[in-house]
Amino acid sequence: MTHPATIEVLRAGALTTVQDLGRPGWAHLGVPRSGALDPGALRLANRLVGNPEHAAGLEITLTGCTVRLTRAATVAVTGAEVPVQAGARPGDTGRPLTVPAGTVLRIGPARRGVRSWLAVAGGIDVSPVLGSRATDTLSGLGPPRLRDGDLLPLGDPVGTPAPVDLTVCPTPPEELHLTLGPGPREDWFTPTAFDRLFGSAYTISPVSNRVGARLAGAALPRAVAGELPSEGIVLGAVQVPADGQPLIFLADHPTTGGYPVIGVVTDVTPLAQARPGTTVRFHGPQR
Hints:
Blueprint: E1 6-11, E2 15-19, H1 39-49, E3 57-61, E4 65-69, E5 73-81, E6 84-86, E7 89-91, E8 97-99, E9 104-107, E10 112-120, E11 151-153, E12 175-182, H2 191-199, E13 202-204, E14 212-216, E15 231-232, E16 237-239, E17 247-249, E18 256-257, E19 261-265, E20 279-283
Parallel strand pairs: 12-20
Antiparallel strand pairs: 1-4, 1-11, 2-3, 3-10, 4-9, 5-8, 5-10, 6-7, 6-9, 12-19, 13-14, 13-20, 14-17, 15-18, 16-17, 16-19
GO molecular function, one term: ATP binding
Organism: Micromonospora arida
Pfam families: CT_A_B (PF02626)
């Protein structure tokens, strides 16, 4: 009897989830997109092992993880700067690596950045939900976060690994400069709020996660008091709770919210690798 090919999770680490490119098109039913926080990094990992770009892989947060492959496979790790060990062989981020069945693959703690993406030829073949295999940490859709001892099925390889020796994963900057477009509730804030938002530095809070990046810095005063009925929220929306500290919504954001949105970040990808304490500055769109 032939046993299905799997990945056995030996050490799940702080937070490792199955991610693909998400489930767009369901926001009207209250379902956010989810998916990899850095879609480009997952696409790269998939190309390196010969997968379609939308194939599911593992998103590994900060502390690394260890898995065992039950079949020979090509693997690739992209994203944060991490040590990679395949059995006794050292590996590199951004490089395809072919390993035999039974290999223990160790992805160590991030030296720089926060998140890594592991692709395996054939992809992670868990059952899709609404067209995606992504874990949504807010709603609970998709497979649960990985635990030690989990077994994940692998799909059949459909392509050949990329003919490259190494690709370069960019080093996360110490200071992020984010472009902020107008939000639907700009009129709820005073001129002082915009002076502070664009004129001062914020830092990433330790309580940030896949739902949102919480910032610490100058509080943004409101011009309008009271409560706001819940309204739609999009990726990159900068919501300002009652304490005046901005919150940038990421892939697992809710689809509605009751705090005013002062603006929308046009590209949240750099936040995927922003560690707590990273400086964030906002600027308006180029005109």
